[in-house]
Structure formats: structure tokens, C-alpha cells
Amino acid sequence: MYASREDIGYDFGDDSKVGSKPIKPNPNIDGGWAWMIVLSSFLVHILIMGSQMALGILNMEWLEEFNQSRGLTAWVSSLSMGITLIVGPFIGLFISMCGCRTTAIIGGILNALGWILSAYASNVHYLFLTFGVTAGIGSGMVYLPAVVMVGQYFQNRRALAQGLSTTGTGFGAFLMTALLKYLCTEFGWRNAMFIQGAISLNLCVCGALMRPLSPKELREKYVVGNDSEENRAKALSQSTETIKSNGVLGEEPEKKEEAANEEVLGSVQHIEIGGKSGSGRSMYGLRLFKTVSQLTVTVRKGFALWYSSYFGAASLFTNRVFVAFIIWALFAYSSFVIPFIHLPEIVKQYKLSRQDNVFPLTSIIAIVHIFGKVILGIISDLPCISTWNVFLMANFTLVTCILTLPLMQTYIGLAVICALIGFSSGYFSLMPVVTEDLVGTKHLANAYGIIICANGISALFGPPFAGWIYDITQKYDFSFYIAGLLYMVGIIFLLIQPCIQKKQSRHKSTEEAQV
User: Distance between CA 467 and CA 461 in Å, rounded?
Assistant: First the structure.
């Protein structure tokens, strides 16, 4: 179908031309420090996404403690998951201005603060603010930089690198489920959240590992990547027809902006040189003014890049395939989140708690999820395989499992379906790769921020909706059926839009040939 960036991509005009002189590959691209970035991202996924996948344990504790409805209580977990992803576009602005490292460190502090404050909750509404909003925003400020940095450091092994780093979600779901069960049993849920908050401070260490690439290193990545014989062979073998679009990011406004910024800084330096003979107090004021001016320039440049990506003439939203990708994301994530939040209750309803205590169904999803991400990442990196097609096949498998799950009322049947859900949901490791193929590395932070924002909206409303349906029908069956059907609608958008755009491209080429 569509495989390479040329196939499903969107040309923003940011690719460097291949030079005539051979350029020595940067040792930190696809190797060296790049693997430390993978380790950092892996730990981030354990501490953030893994913890969120284990919230079903705390959800049962909150139901007993506050004696509220399942729909209302589920909002605590869904707010945390949803806000983590919804704030993606705004975190893209932070990254443009401050960089991934600073953003992640601040987010780690905020996330830990949210967990610790939640230990003192007196009602569910208090948890909305402390755990849902505070911890959720902090999680988002660490999660997006962790994904973006892996995309920056890898060229030829992107799918594998993203697969390895995002396996932290599976490891985290397995480890955090066991940890939270133990902590809640031994110390109570309040102390468990306090301890988890202390553990979350390790996110600051993960952020410190996110060493940014210099502009020179980024240019070397583009040139070497474009000149790679392996990439060219893969593109030629998979390409069917280029999908082109109308918008091209204008470079002139950026150049004018940079010229204006240089003029401001130059005038400040001129004043500073001219005032060297002045008093010490005047020099201190000039230095302070220079620092403020440099900070202002950084903020302006970051905001300009962020604004142009979302609202400029070459907006990401002019890429129709990317828009279809957003529509898919709006429906997809809730189908994965609902089982994690409500499976403990479903097991209790089916009187399968004894078997589930031996080996929890959520742990089955988590363990198989690890292998799914790695295996799908390895398959997608093969020269003869289309990442786009692997992504679609995994989605079809997952939606089939979601629609089938209510029919299973034995532990063995549920375990098989959960294993398939875990493996097929490994496509999450391919989402950054597909996004980068669509928009390019330059716009990856903002574009992936939009995608996870759409996923966040899905995660925000999915669990409360399932809880609301249960409060009405006393069954979870209809929740899975409705979520699965909406998910199928999103997949259909992914299939239809590229075909329409391909047909339009052919028609346009035919008209040009006739003229």
C-alpha cells in the first residue's frame, strides 16, 4: 500500500539535498549515545505509561474508600491518562522553546508532586485536581520528549528503537501492577501513592539523559540518511506512487525572524561594548538586559515554529492523510485503555478472582505487549515490509479482539483474548515512525503532539463512558461493542483517505499529461 515517507509522506521542504562529497556518519546517530536515549525513554514508559496501565488496582481502592459510582470514579484514571496525551501540542511549544531535557525534568517534578498530593485526598474531586490534572500534565511533559528524542537520534533503526523504548509500557504495567498491589496490601493506598511519588522523581534523571543534538549533528543525520543505499532500496521496492500536497513551509518568514533577532542581539552587544567604561551597576544592568533579550529571542523562535506548524500557511492539517490519522487516533486509544481500567471489575463479576490473583489478565496484556512492540518493530524495519501495512494489520487484529472480549466468560478465553490484545497493541511503537514518515523529523514533535492529544481525548472519555454504561445496564458488554465499532470507523478513515488522495494524484497527473 504505502510504505516510505515518499508513499505516505507530506513534503514540507525540510529535507537536505545529498551532497557530492561523502559525509562521515555521526557515531551518535543509530549508535553511541542514541542507546542511552532509548534507555531513558524505556524508563519513562515504565514510570508513566506502566503506572497508568496499573491504575485499575487504585480504581478499586477508590471505589471502596469514597463509595462513588463507577462512572465518576473512573474519571480519576481517565483524566490522568487523557491529560498526559491531550497536553501534547502545548508540550510541543515547551520543547520548541526550552528543549526536551528541561521540559522533561520539570515534568518529572510535577508528576511526583501529583502522586504525593493525591495521598491526602479526602474525596474523588480532590483526586481530579491532584492526580488527574497535576500528575497528568507532569506525565505529558516527560512522555513527549522521550518519544521525540528517540526519533531524533535514529535514522535507519527507528522502528526497532521506538519498539525497544516503548516496551517500557508493558514492563511497567506488569511491574507496577504487582508493586501497587503489594503496597496497597501492606501500607494502604494512601502510602502507596506517596511511595510511588518518590519513585517518580527518577523521571528527572531520565530527563537529564536527554542530551540534545546540535544543528550540525541533525544536518548530518538528514544527509547521511538520504544518501543511504538501504533507504533508497527500501523506498524503491515499496513505492507505488507519490502522494503530493499543496502546502510548503515558507522559509522566508523564518529568515526574516532570525535576521530581526540577530539585529536585536547585535544592538545589545554594541551597547554593552560602548558602556564598558561605565559603572559596575550599569554593566550589570546591560548583562541582565542581554540575558532577557536572548531569552526573548529563544521564546519568539520557539513560538514561531510551533505556531507555523499548527496555524501557518503550511499547517500540518493541510496533509489529508495526517488528518485521517488524527481521526483514527480519536477513536483508537479508548479501546486499549478500557480493559486495563475495568478488567479487575469484570473478573470479579465473572467470579474469576482466584485465577486472576495467580496471574492477572492485565499482566498478560502487559507481558505480551512487550514482545508485540519488539517483534512488530523488527518486522517493520525489514526492507521488503511496509510499516504502514504492519500498522494497519495490527489495528485490525486489536479491534477484532475488543469486539470478541465480551463473548468470553472463562479465564482461559479471556487470557487468550488479552494476549492477542497485548501483541496487536504493539503497534504503538510504530506510531512515531508513521508520524515521522508523514510530516518529517522537523515537525515530529508538533505532529506527534497532535496525535497523542487525539489519543488523550479518546482515553479521557473511554473509561467513564464504560463505567456509565455499566451503571445503566449492569454489564460491560455494550461498552466494548460501541468502543470497537468506533475504532473500526477510525481504521476505515485510514484506509479510505490515502486511496482517495492517490486517485486524485493520478487524475492530476493525467490532466497535466494531456495539457
Answer: 10
**In CATH, what is the architecture of 314-507?**
Up-down Bundle (1.20)
Q: 242's torsion region: left (phi>0), alpha (psi -120 to 50) or beta?
A: beta
Grid cell digits, residue 374: 519488539
In whole angstroms, give the CA distance from residue 235 to residue 377: 18
Q: Residue 91: helix, strand or coil by DSSP?
A: helix
- Judge whether 29-210 and 314-507 match in fold: yes
- Split at pLDDT 50, 70, 90, the class of 478 is confident
Q: Which CB contacts under 8 angstroms, 24+ apart, belong to 260-264? A: 261/297, 261/300, 261/301, 264/293, 264/296, 264/297
CA–CA dist 226, 16 (Å, integer): 8
- Direct distance between the N- and C-terminal alpha carbons of the chain, in angstroms, rounded to an integer: 29
Residue of 336, 316, 330 whose CA lies nearest to 436: 316
Reading the block at residue 215, the C-alpha cell is: 544543528
Q: Which CATH class is domain 29-210?
A: mainly alpha
pLDDT at 513: 64
Distances, alpha carbon 472 to alpha carbons 70, 344, 467, 478, in Å: 11, 19, 9, 11
Q: Compute the distance between CA of residue 303 and CA of residue 157 in angstroms, rounded to an integer.
A: 31
At 7-43, the pLDDT tens digits run 444 444 444 444 444 455 566 676 788 889 999 999 9
| Residues near 390 by beta carbon (within 8 Å), at least 6 away in sequence | 376, 379, 380, 427, 430
Domain map of the chain by residue range?
29-210, 314-507
Scanning the structure block, which residue is given the C-alpha cell 514492563?
171
Q: Which residues contact 111 (CB under 8 A, 6 or more apart)?
A: 48, 135, 138, 139, 141, 142, 200, 203
Helix and strand counts by DSSP (H, E) for the chain: 24, 0
Average pLDDT value for residue range 239-243: 33
What type of residue is 129? Answer: L
CA 123 to chain centre: 31
Q: Is the pTM of this model over 0.85?
A: no
